From TrEMBL, chain A:
Annotated cofactor note: Binds 3 heme c groups covalently per subunit.
Designated name of the protein: Mono/diheme cytochrome c family protein
Record GO cellular component, one term: plasma membrane
Superkingdom of the source species: Bacteria
Gene Ontology MF terms: electron transfer activity; heme binding; iron ion binding; oxidoreductase activity, acting on CH-OH group of donors
Organism: Plasticicumulans acidivorans
Positions that bind heme c 3: C328, C331, H332
Cofactor or coenzyme needed: heme c
Signal peptide span: 1-21
InterPro entries listed in its UniProt record: Cyt_c-like_dom, Cyt_c-like_dom_sf, Cytochrome_c-type_DH, Membr-bd_ADH_cyt_c
Entry-linked Gene3D superfamilies: Cytochrome c-like domain (1.10.760.10)
TrEMBL record, chain B:
Organism: Plasticicumulans acidivorans
Top-level lineage group: Bacteria
Protein known as: Thiosulfate dehydrogenase
Biased composition (Basic and acidic residues): 279-297
Residue span of region Disordered: 32-58, 275-297
Length: 430, 297
């Protein structure tokens, strides 16, 4: 009996080491590398200045504390080198590790559950054979003992995660389905762009889950804008081509990604194939406005409301106009149209027009930098204007949100003060 | 002889010319104190007042008009400006940026000896120097509403500066003039760091309303060869300190501090030597010698 057990164990060991040793099909590893870029695994699993995929990046989870991303290199002691394919699949889809530990949903396994078995095989091949093992131990999470039990995460998973691979929707064409698969699944766009519920679960995980999906949410001091069809704050006035340009190059003629999205573009989307980018854009454009609003015919919300003429004539009767002229106009211009691919337009820019103003205020306070990609020689930046007081910032933001045809509620000085406090707390925590 | 003792020392080098100049100068302004004798005053930190604090009434309107003329020069003075430039193309951020050739304190520093003119010049004359060179245009009459407005804005910007006019960050800083510029590398730097905004052919960029965002650096719409910016060291210093704009998270325009002294010299050697309009009055420059080695004529 003992011998039989020993034999079985030896066999299992042989089999599992055989899995690791057998060189996988190079094209499978290559495809896995591409998929890992779509999934942007590097974003969380690499700490600044540390080896790729060796983990150690601090993630502050509301209510819980600080957790650290883990080593996902094939190192057999510290990484995932001992994982069988089934182990890998369970971690990716269900948030379960081989030792029975439950992963915090900072790991977007509810989205990764949609990955097809074929793509999961490719990812596994890449992480086992295409990634350099790094012997770097994982850091202990900083979670108070009374919150450190992981078993409730099992219930969380049962309640909020659906572990089924993506099912093609026959009502849509192949490109749309490809886009849905990438956006809802590996791309896990909803991790930032979908509002979260009481248990920090994403309120919707796909287009069929309702209007919360990608309707905009706040994360890490930013507001990740709506990717749905609202003409003002969503993508209602954007063309498919513009969405592709933004994902590929970090900017369009009239806008630029900023904040955390610049990292997504730099690490992930700039490397995607045009086919995949067009598929994602086609899918995003199919999401109706969360509030039922519809883009006007001809799409443009821009209209000549006299702002340009007033600024040219030196007339600044509206609060914020004088601040705009002094601090903003040399780049964003009197017509609010900026300079193509250099200074973003403010006229008609959905990032300006949301109800949630924290990103807007943050960019004024901290400045911001465009994504650096292989597609443009220079990445431009906006300087911090934190020397402006709360009233001046509120005034100038209210001015740009209501000029050149823009229309959005005014910004209050208290919102600026609150964001100053929040960013200062964020900086202290880091 | 009593007249001569009041002359600036530099003017004594060519007594005949100096006498003519000084009689003229004395009629307009008192001769400035000889700054080579007195210890240099300590510059004060540059604090530029906000536009929102420009007073109301006719005085404030004049200041506002001056500010607009300096920032929107080409559109407001189409008959006077030949190039596609505004004063604030070089005097960045409404003339409020340290090392971006600011106007803060400037009204106290004029009249000032100008080696190019070989005599003391007034602030009005200095403004007209820019009008004829960088702007490749024609001078404004000293008593014109436009000139008065421009001076009023500069005086308002300088109102909190002591009368010595010395301000930290005045001018454009310095560059290592001992380095040998390499225009071939300069072209590489231009393509990598300048062409996105100033264009592959130095043509600059206009906004959708037709106004200059980034001025042309050569060609018929650029500053002429009489401009400071057409000279190697001036251009290199300005570029090192202020270009590109919109590249950093700090600074009034997120400007500069990207290129090394060598790269700045290289790229300046490349673009200053490109074709550009001639300057008609060039024969009258540096009448007393002392022409700098980067002069274009």
């Amino acid at each position: 009996m003992k011998t039989a057990r020993w034999l079985a164990a030896a066999l299992a060991a042989l089999c599992s080491s055989a899995v690791h040793a057998a060189p996988a099909d190079p094209s499978l590893v290559e495809r896995g590398a591409y998929l890992a870029r779509v999934g942007d695994c590097v974003a969380c699993h690499t700490a600044p200045g540390q080896p790729t995929f060796a983990g150690g990046l601090a993630l502050d989870v509301p209510y819980l504390g600080r957790i650290y991303s883990t080593n996902i290199t094939p190192d057999r002691e510290h990484g995932i080198g001992k994982y069988s394919f089934e182990d890998f699949d369970a971690a990716m889809r269900h948030g379960e590790t081989p030792d029975g530990r439950r992963l915090y949903p900072a790991m977007p396994f509810p989205s990764y559950a949609k990955i097809t078995p074929e793509d999961m095989r490719a990812l596994y091949a890449y992480f086992m054979q295409g990634v350099q093992p790094v012997a770097q131990a994982n850091r202990e999470d900083e979670v108070p003992w009374y919150l450190s039990a992981r078993w409730p995460l099992g219930i969380w998973g049962y309640l909020f995660a659906d572990a089924e691979p993506y099912q093609s929707d026959p009502q849509h064409d192949a490109a749309w389905n490809r886009g849905a698969y990438l956006v809802e699944g590996l791309g896990h766009c909803g991790a930032c762009h979908t509002p979260r519920g009481f248990a920090l679960q994403e309120k919707a995980l796909g287009s069929t889950d309702g209007a919360d999906f990608l309707a905009g949410s706040h994360v890490g001091g930013w507001f990740a804008k709506s990717l749905r069809g609202e003409p003002s704050q969503g993508l209602g006035n954007w063309s498919i081509e513009e969405i592709v340009q933004l994902l590929k190059t970090g900017r369009t003629r009239s806008s630029a990604a900023f904040g955390a999205m610049t990292e997504v573009i730099a690490h992930s989307t700039q490397h995607l194939s045009d086919n995949d980018l067009y598929a994602m854009a086609q899918y995003l454009k199919s999401l109706p406005a969360a509030d039922g609003s519809v883009a006007a015919a001809g799409t443009a919300t821009l209209r000549d409301d006299g702002t340009l003429a007033a600024l040219q004539a030196g007339q600044y009767p509206r609060a914020g106009a004088a601040v705009y002229v002094e601090f903003c106009a040399s780049c964003h211009r009197f017509d609010g149209l900026g300079a193509p691919r250099i200074f973003p337009a403010l006229a008609g820019n959905p990032s300006l027009l949301g109800d949630d103003t924290r990103s807007l205020i943050r960019v004024v306070l901290e400045g911001g930098r465009m994504a650096t990609t292989q597609h443009d020689p220079m990445a431009f930046a906006m300087p911090s204007l934190k020397e402006l007081n709360d009233q001046e910032i509120a005034d100038v933001l209210s001015f740009v949100r209501n000029s050149w045809g823009n229309a959005a509620r005014p910004v209050q000085p208290a919102e600026v003060a609150e964001q100053r406090r929040a960013l200062s707390a964020l900086a202290t925590a880091q | 002889m009593t007249l001569l003792t009041a002359l600036p020392i530099r003017a004594l080098r060519k007594p005949a010319l100096a006498l003519a100049t000084v009689t003229l100068l004395l009629a307009v302004t008192p001769a400035p104190a000889d700054d080579s004798a007195a210890p240099k005053p300590t510059p004060v930190p540059m604090v530029a007042p906000r536009d929102a604090t420009i007073p109301g009434g006719p005085e404030g309107e004049l200041i506002q008009y001056g500010r607009r003329l300096l920032t929107d020069t080409k559109r407001l003075l189409p008959d006077k400006v030949g190039s596609s430039m505004n004063c604030t193309s070089c005097h960045l951020g409404e003339g409020k940026v340290a090392y971006g050739s600011p106007f803060v304190g400037i009204s106290h520093r004029f009249p000032q000896y100008n080696p190019r003119a070989g005599r003391d010049v007034t602030l009005q004359e200095r403004v007209n120097g820019c009008m004829q060179r960088s702007m490749n245009g024609t001078p404004l009459a000293s008593d014109s509403h436009e000139m008065k407005a421009i001076i009023a804005y500069m005086e308002w910007l300088s109102k909190d500066v002591p009368s010595h006019g010395q301000v930290e960050g005045m001018g454009i800083g310095d560059v290592n003039k001992k380095l040998t510029p390499d225009p071939v590398n300069g072209q590489r730097v231009y393509v990598a760091q300048c062409a996105s905004c100033h264009g592959a052919n130095g043509e600059g960029m206009k906004d959708a309303a037709g106004e200059t965002i980034f001025p042309p650096l050569w060609g018929e719409h650029a500053f002429n060869i009489g401009a400071g910016m057409a000279r190697l060291f001036k251009a290199a210093t300005f570029v090192k300190q202020n270009m590109p704009i919109g590249i950093r998270l700090d600074g009034r325009l997120g400007q500069g501090q990207v290129l090394s002294d060598q790269e700045a010299l290289d790229v300046a050697a490349y673009f200053t030597q490109q074709p550009r309009p001639d300057f008609a009055g060039k024969d009258r420059d540096w009448p007393k010698g002392g022409k700098p080695k980067d002069a274009r004529y």
